[in-house]
Specification:
The structure is a homodimer.
Chain A (H helix, E strand, L loop, with lengths): L6 H19 L12 H9 L8 E5 L12 E2 L9 E2 L3 E4 L13 E9 L13 E5 L11 E4 L3 E4 L2 E4 L9 E2 L10 E3 L7 H9 L4 E5 L3 E6 L4 E2 L10 E2 L2 H11 L3 E4 L7 H9 L6 E5 L10 H8 L1 E5 L3 E2 L5 E5 L2 E6 L3 H19 L9 E6 L3 E2 L5 E9 L2 E4 L8 H4 L3 E5 L5 E2 L4 E6 L2
Parallel strand pairs in A: 5-6, 13-16, 13-17, 14-15, 17-21, 19-24, 22-25
Antiparallel strand pairs in A: 1-12, 2-11, 3-10, 4-6, 4-7, 5-9, 8-9, 18-20, 20-21, 22-28, 23-27, 24-25, 24-26, 26-28
Helix pairs in contact in A: 2-7, 4-7
């Protein structure tokens, strides 16, 4: 059998090889070379972030959702005295050990202590003192019998149930002993922590400042929302979706004006980031001729990665500029929002010292078969309808891919198809 | 066998019966008679709430987390023109049908269109025009080949892959056709809705006003946080935990000053509620002698229920006063916070027109056996440690029952015990 060589094919194979080599060696095409996984990308960023250090003092009611920048110790015992935990009668427990529904014990009511009064006399044998929830327990008394188990007859009561010593009494310091550390530096302040701070009378709380996030929209085609746009322009969407995610995760969004596709302008914008804790750039992170963000970051800063194995959102750059982490997001609105949930949210929360809680999830069945891309983690936007997850992903440039979505489903790198009816976990947008 | 009657027992049985009858007839003891279930209680309230009607206009970036009070229709097509979805070369698809890695097609590059430029000439046969993502598609062109599949040689390119008509082109109006309703009245505005509003250039959004929630703390023993308290007093905790929950669920907390246990004073405070959408009272909802809230609500308003089959939080009153729903919570901090999550949160969200999303949950194994009370739904506060749910509930008066908790576990009415190691669902505090 003769060896048959198609010289034309051979020539093109060489050319194709040369093309690949060129892009590797000169970087002229800036093709994505070494895509990192999402986890690798996050680890690279985490290694370089600086958590907020500055603190500020805020009113107690403004401290909810913030992170404590101080250790708070109880300056007094809670309760301050032994107090009644119920409305009823303070008794000597031993007097009523034998009480029952059919053999009640009769006690004399010798006083009544309001919640804001000091006891005037002790509880003697055969006696009781009426108390309210919170009343101070008088000398001699060691249990409180609830009204429900008593009957009042003039100046006496019948007790229909026994009580053990200490019953319905909150001992001094039993809740919070004096000196106990109730809130630690770094603790997230939720409603219940607000409660314990209130119990200690703390009207002002030192909390960490909210991180400032500079958002830089780039693209000569962009128009500012609120301005009249020309037919050629499109409105800047990403600044606003990013601002929403920043606000929802403990940060203060600082919106930069729109920056044209020009290296000098991008660099000038980046310089303003030194007043912020984190910089996010959108647009211009891909490999087109006008994609200059990567170049600027490479020249002026340090690139941690360029290209992540996710879909959408592959052309993402992680970098450091003047000691600040920079996230450069693709300009496509859906890629950018997906990136905001995958990168910006966890990174910002870590900078803000907020707990690393993920998005809320629900389980649902997929309404139709979905074909994914092997080797990239696919974030498929879905809408929830009748307990089914209905894919709404059109293309990453489409706004409706996200606007109609309730959340997204993650299809792993090693899955190429998810079948109709398969159970998926839907991450709900905030 | 002789009939044996213990007259003493008989006498007391009669007395016990009389006691029950008395409390039923005269209501003098105000014992809880007909406890309703949590679901019944919520339904009774839902039947009487009035959702916010007033709207206000806010900046786009302030609209996140709010509810739209208007239908928003697209005033133009998105995209406005046929646009390129990729960086690459706009071609006539039929020119490259035969292209492959080994048989590339050669095309002449006749122009380049920036994202902010109008096309200057059409794409002729054998020609292509360089485009960026977002560039307007010129006449004659009907596909965009990505850079990755081309090689530039001077004024020509080699195309290494075929393209189908329409490939990498976002058709005019394909994302949002002009006139399409993108946000409906009543829609919750999350980050992705912000995105679609931005795409339409909407700088101001009409949203429903946040409901105002008047919080009335009652109790003569209470001291205001920030003031110096006497030894007899305890700090007002509940106003602040309630305010935190109100803030976290789309409401504006309005803190009333502390009201002493006096019917006239409580009534005066309630009157101020007519400027609010919801009234929450804490303290004084139990059956003690000083528990006057129920009396005031019964006389001046309409009581929907008094007593709910939950633990803690049984002595809760639902009422209507001057057309406003009133929730009267027990004074114990843990009961009050538990109530805030069970009642206040869903009721407020409904008034605010916010989606009825529950708390975030995680599954964990119980770290020890827990004995509950049959007939009452038990909200057991727990802390998460090493994947285990560790009960921290001390008593409902204890602040640490909640301050040390990450969330709560619900033990149903018909369970009296949950064993160590059982899987439970933990509702995480916000």
């Amino acid at each position: 059998m003769p060896l048959c060589v198609d010289l034309s094919s051979f020539k093109h194979t060489l050319r194709a090889l040369k093309l690949i080599m060129t892009s590797f060696n000169k970087g002229s095409m800036k093709t994505f070379r070494l895509l990192v996984s999402l986890d690798e990308a996050l680890q690279l960023i985490y290694g370089r972030i600086r958590q907020v250090e500055k603190a500020e003092e805020v009113d107690l009611d403004d401290a909810v959702g913030r992170v404590s920048a101080e250790d708070v110790k109880a300056p007094f015992n809670v309760p301050f005295f032994d107090r009644s935990a119920m409305d009823g009668y303070c008794v000597r427990a031993e007097d009523v050990y034998g009480a029952s529904q059919f053999n009640p014990v009769r006690l004399r009511v010798v006083d009544m202590i309001g919640v804001d009064e000091e006891p005037r006399r002790p509880v003697g044998a055969g006696e009781c003192i009426q108390v309210a929830t919170g009343s101070i327990i008088p000398e001699g008394g060691d249990a409180v019998v609830m009204y429900e188990y008593t009957e009042r007859i003039g100046e006496e009561i019948l007790v229909y149930r026994p009580a053990y010593p200490g019953e319905n009494i909150s001992k001094k310091g039993s809740d919070i002993p004096c000196g106990r550390e109730v809130v630690k530096k770094g603790d997230y302040i939720n409603a219940s922590k607000i409660g314990v701070l209130a119990a200690l009378g703390k009207a002002r709380v030192r909390v960490y400042e909210k991180p400032r996030v500079l958002i830089i929209p780039t693209g000569s085609e962009l128009a500012k929302v609120g301005d009249n746009k020309s037919a050629m322009q499109i409105y800047d969407i990403n600044s606003h979706t990013l601002a929403a995610v920043v606000k929802g995760n403990g940060g203060i969004p600082v919106l930069h004006e729109i920056v044209p596709d020009d290296e000098k302008e991008v660099e000038k914008a980046l310089q303003k980031g030194v007043e912020s804790n984190l910089i996010v750039i959108t647009g211009g992170s891909s490999v087109g001729t006008k994609d200059i963000i990567y170049d600027v970051l490479r020249k002026r800063g340090e690139v941690l990665f360029h290209g992540v194995q996710v879909k959408p959102g592959k052309p993402t750059v992680g970098a450091v500029f003047e000691d600040r982490v920079v996230l450069a997001m693709p300009g496509h609105p859906t890629s950018c929002l997906s990136n905001a949930y995958l990168f910006l949210r966890p990174v910002l929360r870590r900078i803000a010292r907020l707990p690393d809680t993920g998005l809320k999830t629900v389980k649902a069945r997929l309404s139709r078969r979905v074909v994914s891309t092997l080797g990239r983690r696919f974030f498929l936007t879905v809408r929830l309808r009748n307990g089914e997850a209905e894919p709404v992903f059109k293309e990453s440039s489409a706004i409706t891919s996200m606007a109609e979505a309730d959340g997204y489903v993650v299809i792993p790198e090693n899955a190429d198809t998810v079948e109709k009816g398969d159970w998926v976990e839907v991450y709900l947008f905030e």
